[in-house]
Amino acid sequence: MPASNPHNSEMRDLQEMARQIRRDIIKMLMISQSGHSGGPLGLADIFSCLYFRILKYDPSNVTWPERDYFFLSAGHLAPVWYATLARAGFYPLSEMSTLRKINTRLQGHPAPWYTHGLPGIEIASGSLGQGMSIAVGAALGLRMDRKPNHVYVLHGDGELDEGQVWEGIMTAGHYSVDNLTAIVDRNFCQIDNRTDKVMELEPLADKWRAFRWNVIECDGNDISDFLVAVEEAKAIKGKPSVVIAKTFMGKGVSFMEDDYRWHGVPPGIEQGKQALSELEPTKFGDFVEFEWEKQVAEVVK
Amino acid sequence: MTTIESKGEKATRQGFSDALLELGKENPDVVVLGGDVSGSVKVDAFAKAYPDRFFSVGVAEADMMGVAAGLSLVGKIPIASAYGEFAAGRPFDQIRQSLAYSEMPVKICASHCGITVGPDGATHQSLEDVALMRVLPRMTVICPCDYLETKRAVKSSISITKGPVYIRFFRDNTPMFTDESMSFEIGKANTLIDGTDVTIIAAGLQVWEAIQAAEVLAAERISARVINMHTIKPLDKKTILKAAQETRALVTAEDHQIHGGLGSAVAEYLAQEHPTPQEFVAVNDTFGESGKGAELMKKYGIAREDIVKAVKKVLRRKK
Q: Of B119, B128, B121, which is closest to residue B282 (Cα–Cα)?
């Protein structure tokens, strides 16, 4: 069993893995023709860091008692999680092509492994705003037993409109749970528009501080910057920490970058081809090779 | 006819409180969550005895359900406590996704249910909670009838390790009429009085009302069977079918809306299996108001007299 992260990848591999995850996301969405593009692409660097450097887990034993707990509160970001879980060894790469199809374990929004979801998914998410409370509960329970496991929860910035998130943030601050690190995907975009148009979140860092949290801001598309931020978060004792990670929605695909209209839609076939041409192939290899001349429709079945 | 006597009065919520103290002693994994109503929902005794295993989450029931899910994930047995309206209605979506869909064995213990909560008025009278909880897959719904049964229900619920349990109880002191000699098994109804002309299926405080109604009816030579349907989900279909076949007329009684509660559960089942004339004693698609519990039971038609009336009505329809 791994004493730390089972991959513990070097910087160059983390970057290459992030690019592979982006390619996987594009291909999964081209096949499913349903699902969210923008947020998942923006988070590929963060997920590469989490699963190939930061988190403690054993992909062959999802109930390993020493594992870290990771909760994806914004469940619609599932494609980046699914691609990462496959790459991290939780399930076969080829299964990525079943996203959102009947009888799949890759549900539109994450289902737990013990019902009909993928190994590595601890609890359902999709209805927004529930992950913080769950993370706080897990952190409190682990602390009661003096266990060293760390708990991570990832929120979208638009998701912070949900009141329950702030209930959970208040509870975490009240109980000073320092075995908990929250990550906010700060891409300034949500479905309808830019976040400042839908519901102004600023001053966001001050809000968390006012709820007795330690706040670290970083560039979520810069792997070394994010790794340093999480290290710092984990080192802070006596209060929970949040990493507000600035990312670009659609990062890596020129025509999607920083455009809220890519929040909830998949690329069409031509758009997908264009996206893949911008994301250079990696040494990890794709889970499926499209034969364009035969039409993607063949694969889409 | 079997007579069932009251051995004094105590609140069902006190049964919850006493169960928690015993569970606290027996099982170190049991943790309790409170939402700033610890005294009235009676989790204060546990909080005092086991301060390290009691978590106040403030007046935040949505958060409470999530925190309970997280505690459950790391091996604790969380018991979430609130008033019925705020235990089932307010955090419905949290219960649906984080507990039911996610199969978390969290116990949701709801005090102050029904119209009988009284003076607080309609905002605090949860009359829809059974309907809300019953419709969720993977959920167990229990509505015990007195102090002891509440205690036994809470203690038994710990054995359910897959999916949440919703236990509904009440504020006021009410007659204690069950005893340890009666069996209590989740999902298995208790036939308290045997009868041949009609069956009254009741839950919660209406079980005592049904017993009283059966006595009134006995004096008029109507033999009423009384079934205590403490578990509303999963429903004890065998006992219901037997009663429907043998007495051919039913009355259901509950402190809940007429739509979606115990009466609906029984009717849904029998409509498919053995259609039987049925009358519903329940709050008739309206909100409550302030008043004493007993006064409200009468005004809103869920008292023993209403059960008697419903029995006579259903007997006229009996084939």
A: B128
Chain B touched by A165 (CB under 8 Å): no
- Residues B16-67: pLDDT tens digits? 999 999 999 999 999 999 999 999 999 999 999 999 999 999 999 999 999 9
| Mean pLDDT across A156-165 | 98
Domain limits at B242?
Answer: 190-317
Question: How many CB contacts within 8 angstroms connect chain A with chain B?
Answer: 110
Compare CB distances from B97 to A122, A124, A167 and report the shortest one's residue.
A124
The answer to whether B251 and B312 have CB atoms below 8 angstroms apart is no
User: How many Å lie between the alpha carbon of B30 and the closest alpha carbon of chain A?
Assistant: 11
Question: B233 and B151, same structural domain?
Answer: no
Chain B residues near residue A163 by CB distance under 8 angstroms: 62
Residue A56 reports pLDDT greater than 60: yes
Rounded Cα gap, residues B32 and B55, in angstroms? 6
The length of chain A in residues reads 301
How many domains does chain B fold into? 2
Q: Is A133's CB within 8 Å of B104's CB?
A: no
State which residue of chain B sits closest to A110, comparing Cα positions.
B102
B180 inside domain: no
Nearest CA of chain A to the CA of B53: how many Å? 8
Q: Is A139 on the interface with B (CB under 8 A)?
A: yes
Q: Which residues of B touch A175 (CB under 8 A)?
A: 55
CA distance A156 to B266: 44
Closest partner CB to B98 (pick from A69, A115, A124): A124
Tell me which fold the domain A11-300 belongs to: Rossmann fold (3.40.50)
Q: Note whether B219 and B289 are same-domain residues.
A: yes
pLDDT at position B2: 77
Q: What is the mean pLDDT of residues A38-42?
A: 98
- How many CB atoms sit inside 10 A of residue B2's CB? 11
Site of tokens 């030579």: B221
Q: Catalytic residue at B61?
A: yes
Measured between beta carbons, which residues in chain B are less than 8 angstroms from residue A130? 62, 66, 94, 97-98
Q: Per the domain annotation, does B3 fall within a domain?
A: no
Which tokens sit at A11?
């910087």
Output the pLDDT for position B319: 87
Considering only CB atoms, A126 lies closest to which of B53, B68, B97, namely B97
pLDDT of residue A48: 98
Q: What is the pTM of this model?
A: 0.96
Is B167 found in the same domain as B52?
Answer: yes
How far apart are alpha carbons B260 and B132 in whole angstroms? Answer: 8
- The answer, yes or no, to whether residue A1 has pLDDT greater than 80, is no
Q: Which amino acid is at A60?
A: S
What span, in angstroms and rounded, lies between the C-alpha atoms of B172 and B296? 13
Contacts of residue B137 in chain A, CB cutoff 8 Å? none
What CATH number is attached to the domain comprising B271?
Answer: 3.40.50.920
Q: What is the mean pLDDT of residues B110-121?
A: 96
Per-residue model confidence (pLDDT) at position A301? 52
Domain ranges for chain A? 11-300
pLDDT digits (tens, 9 = 90+) for B53-81: 999 999 999 999 999 999 999 999 999 99
Q: State the ipTM, two decimals.
A: 0.96
